[in-house]
Design a protein that fits this description.
The structure is a homodimer. With about 230 residues, chain A is mainly alpha-helical. The first copy, chain A, contains nine helices and three strands; from the N terminus they run αβααββαααααα. At the A-B interface, helix 3, helix 4, helix 7 and helix 9 of A face helix 3, helix 4, helix 7 and helix 9 of B. The structure holds a DNA duplex (30 and 30 nucleotides).
DNA sequence: TGAACGCAAAGTGAATGCAAAATGACCCTT
DNA sequence: AAGGGTCATTTTGCATTCACTTTGCGTTCA
């Protein structure tokens, strides 16, 4: 939330954003020297930030061979989506214990707005509303440890998810809208256990859609294009 | 799993163990100089390890004021137990999809052994079997990302859990045995959603027991005893 | 001609040095 | 005597430096 006044703390945030936003292609080497020049700092705070990002699973740190952008295998993606499903399931379960009627109404409003975007085919608006709904549920769970964990996992799959959603076709869209209606229904009834299962299956559906897109569209070898110049 | 041949990697593991095993009391300052002498290294790799441990939530890193052992508030403990419950629930859900009959049998055997320890009043053996059962379910889930996450959360609450279990009375013990029977039953039937709820509630029970012990036994101010000499 | 050896350059891992901030003690003022 | 302020010491943050590993290329020998 509040970034410390230390250099390595600021670098950690900036570097994480830089990597998540797609500044480096999958599996590419990340020379310390380049990043030092990019941020205008010495290697010490940069290396500290890299260690943390490696612990978060965003980069891979091979001994004496430096940092590489963690290339997610199909297996990794599958695991991360299931993990995210478990965390969202937990968020839903806890939300049912704590959420107020006003917060449920806020989510209902978001759902309505999202449905409008769906009808108008506004992909960006739909995606933003979708994310906000899940964020609201996460907040309603009133659990900082869970929120931090969920955000960390989300960061690891964001680039994959973003790429997959762009290729997504309509049939998955309509299914997602139906699933969201189930979510809202369970939330209104404060049916925690039920909502947990719905949310897990919701992420399971997303996972399957993403995996289909990957196996269909992307070649087995990691493609090298879209190398943004730093 | 495999520790790298690097110094900071080894220090990270050793320092984490040192902290988790209770080498430092809650809220105490952790001067870098002392740790350097303890491990016989310079400050650079030590600081890198500290950054990672701060990201894991084990220590607190205040700018220009060094590292402190993270003192868990009652709220923190509550949140972490719920988070652990969500992760175990996910593990159970996934385990039901993947587990073999042989693995179920192995867990049944552990449960039987644990029941024996319960009857004989062998606290240590009971605790070990209990942990092994949950570890088996976690393995059966076949999800490395989940396992790593669960172990990280477990590390954060281990000291609290250990201290609380020592003060635990019999009535909670017998309840735990009954809950384990429910877990096994759901696992045999591969009832994933049901098992998830059971496991979440199982951790919820543990949480409540721990919180009762804390509010009953421990004074509002953090007690300073049990300072192990390094 | 191809493969193996060796050397040089680059990059990483860890230690040291230096500046700034914080802690604590002592002194001064009231 | 109590409170506040100043200075010295300690500790942290970051840069720099040194040492070792890896790697790419050229040479040599089969």
């Amino acid at each position: 939330m509040d970034r410390p006044a230390t250099l390595h703390g600021e670098i950690l945030t900036r570097l994480r954003d830089h990597l998540v936003e797609g500044g480096v292609p999958d599996g590419a080497r990340i020379p310390e020297k380049d990043l030092c020049e990019l941020f205008g700092i010495s290697r010490t705070p940069l290396r500290e930030a890299l260690k943390v990002l490696a612990a978060e699973g965003l980069v891979e740190l091979l001994p004496n061979r430096g940092a590489r952008m963690k290339a997610l295998s199909v297996r990794d993606i599958s695991e991360l989506f299931d993990l995210m499903g478990g965390l969202e399931a937990l968020a839903g379960r806890l939300a049912c214990e704590n959420i107020t009627d006003a917060e449920v109404s806020a989510i209902e409003a978001l759902h309505t707005e999202m449905y409008g975007h769906y009808l108008r085919g506004n992909r960006h608006g739909y995606f933003a509303c979708n994310q906000q709904i899940h964020e609201h549920i996460l907040m309603a769970a009133q659990n900082q440890a869970l929120a931090a964990n969920a955000h960390a996992v989300m960061g690891r799959i964001r680039r994959v998810r973003f790429a997959a959603n762009l290729d997504d076709r309509g049939e998955r869209w309509s299914a997602a809208v139906r699933e969201h209606e189930l979510i809202l229904d369970a939330l209104r009834r404060r049916a925690g256990a039920e909502l947990a299962t719905i949310l897990f299956n919701h992420l399971r559906s997303k996972k399957l859609a993403v995996l289909r897109n990957i196996e269909a569209g992307e070649a087995p070898e990691p493609r090298q294009k879209q190398v943004t110049v730093t």
